[in-house]
Amino acid sequence: MAIRPVGGYEATGRAADRTAVEAIGLGKRHRRRWALRDCTFRLPAGRICALVGPAGAGKTTLLSLASGLVRPTEGTVRIGGANGSGPAGRAKVAWVAQGGPLSPRLTVAETLRLGRELAPGHWSERRAEQIVRAGRLPLNARVGALCAGRGAHLALTLALARQPELLLLDDLPAHADPLVRHQVAALLLAQAAEYGTTVVLTSPPLAELDGLCDHLLVLAGGRIRLAGAAEDAVGAHALVMGERRGEGLPPRIAAHPVVDAQLTGRHFTALIRPEGAIAPGPWEVAEPSVEELLLAYLRAPDVPAPNAPGGEPAAPRPRRLLGGTRGHRPGIPGMPRNAAPGRPGPPGGAPRIGHDQHSGKGAAA
Ligand SMILES: Nc1ncnc2c1ncn2[C@@H]1O[C@H](COP(=O)(O)OP(=O)(O)OP(=O)(O)O)[C@@H](O)[C@H]1O
């Protein structure tokens, strides 16, 4: 684990009223190729945000820009109101990255002492002790003898004791055993609630997001595909499941923007962004889980952002009046909504409906 630049956290005002990260037209180009482009979003303070996207989507680039380690080619990113590229912005961010150097020869106590010395004026001894106690870190153990989960917990202690406003967390929970992952999740929730720290988790296990992440940021191809509060994002989509009678989706479903559709045998499952009421028919309509929503976006990296091209957060929407049979989690045996994370859809399953689904092409007659 490597701890990147850190700084002080001002516990003033209601977290939800403050903006932790604001990106406007943010972009980074390497030679002629854009790693990130047109990236516009606002992340309120005190949120736990899942940053999700396929390999090469631009996640690390976004973290590098947010941490101030890399300067944008275009646009701006502000951290707690300060320019993210300047010292004031950088001082508000901690980045716990995978594979960085915690010295294996030092003990836990020596590592913490070093952390305190390297963060004069920012270090909270009380917070460090709390986190060490919560993670049951043995103070006299050598860092090299700690299991991966405890090593991760130590890296997190170093980062949080420095009281950052924004914590960037790279893959951490995925590498720990379930108990440590649970401890880390509890720690992050407490940190966000009590200290207003904003946490950005890169590629967290999708099955563990419900109840942990309340904000979503989906990238693909260097552009934002979805950004906003998880609740709003879920409310702006619907999962429609039913029997199919033609080649593609029923026209009354394909009339809405389709994010992803899975066709399996005689059934279909589609994640749509309803534009108005969904016409009734031989299908069920349900609210997607966060996992289902993200899986659909990961399966459809080309889908345009709701407010393309800027990809701004979707505004909170009132609950729609849905047609069809609206249920909470009806589930259809063998359908993708029950698929395990990382295994989108049943084996030998349905073809993914491509881009032209958004215009409704490919719908069944
Ligand atoms: N220093 C660089 N020079 C050239 N191209 C780069 C550089 N850094 C990133 N890229 C390219 O920019 C794109 C985005 O890379 P980035 O590492 O941000 O993606 P990512 O979502 O973090 O991917 P992964 O999950 O595989 O780490 C990729 O196509 C990558 O090859």
Can you characterise this structure?
The protein is α/β, with parallel strands linked by helices and 365 residues long. The protein folds into two domains: 2-221, P-loop containing nucleotide triphosphate hydrolases (Rossmann fold, 3-Layer(aba) Sandwich), CATH 3.40.50; 236-359, no CATH class. It is built from nine helices and 16 strands. It has helices at residues 59-67, 87-90, 108-118, 125-134, 148-161, 178-195, 230-235, 251-254, 290-299; strands at 2-3, 19-30, 33-44, 48-52, 74-79, 82-83, 93-97, 166-170, 198-202, 215-220, 223-229, 238-243, 258-264, 267-272, 283-286, 325-327. It is globular and about 65 Å long. It starts with a strand and ends in a 38-residue tail after the last strand. Residues 1-13 and 308-365 have low confidence and may be disordered. The structure holds adenosine-5'-triphosphate (ATP). Adenosine-5'-triphosphate (ATP) is lined by residues 30, 35, 53, 55-61.
